[in-house]
Amino acid sequence: MQYWLVKSEPFKYSWDQFVADGKTHWDGVRNYAARNNLRAMKKGDQVLWYHSNEGLEIVGIAKVVKESYQDPTTPDPAWLAVDLAPLKKLKKPVTLAQMKAEKSLANMDLIRLGRLSVGTVKPEEFEKIMEMANAK
């Protein structure tokens, strides 16, 4: 299993709305690095849900329920989407400030590549975030 992080602006699509919907397609990505991460996602992979712009925190864990396919928001076959379903809300959100203060997370995509909307998460980074969220 691999781990990922997706960013969503809560005023556009929040964790709570995602949970209410029960599933969503992750589309509209127009960055090649983020697109390549979507392409690499496999069914069952876990995805950290990060509220960007307001909140600036990881609030939940989703899972990939459908691997990459043609993004339905564009006729251009270069762009992809995946389907995600909520797995669980974190007991305690993990803020960007907390992650930046944690030396073991210094190389995390979220910290190094702040504008990347779909990033990779190494297993040890995922475990550290779960520890910080009291999710163990």
How would you briefly describe this protein structure?
The chain is α+β, with helices and mostly antiparallel strands and 136 residues long. The protein has five helices and six strands; from the N terminus they run βαβαβββααβα.
Query: Helical proportion?
Result: 25-40%
| SS summary, helix count | 5
How does the helix and strand content classify structurally? alpha+beta
Q: State the end-to-end distance.
A: 18 Å
With strands numbered from the N-terminus, the spatial order across the biggest sheet is 2-5-4-3-1-6
In percent, how much strand structure appears in the residues?
35-45%
Order of helices and strands: EHEHEEEHHEH
Average pLDDT figure: 96
Number of strands: 6
Low-confidence stretches: none
In angstroms, what is the radius of gyration? 14 Å
* Major pleated sheet: 6 strands, mixed
Q: Given the C-alpha coordinates, what overall shape results? A: globular
Structure description:
This protein is an alpha+beta fold and 136 residues long. 26% of the residues lie in helices and 36% in strands. It has helices at residues 15-21, 32-40, 96-101, 109-112, 123-132, and strands at residues 3-8, 24-26, 46-51, 57-70, 80-95, 118-121. The radius of gyration is 14 Å and the shape is globular. The model has no long low-confidence stretch (mean pLDDT 96).
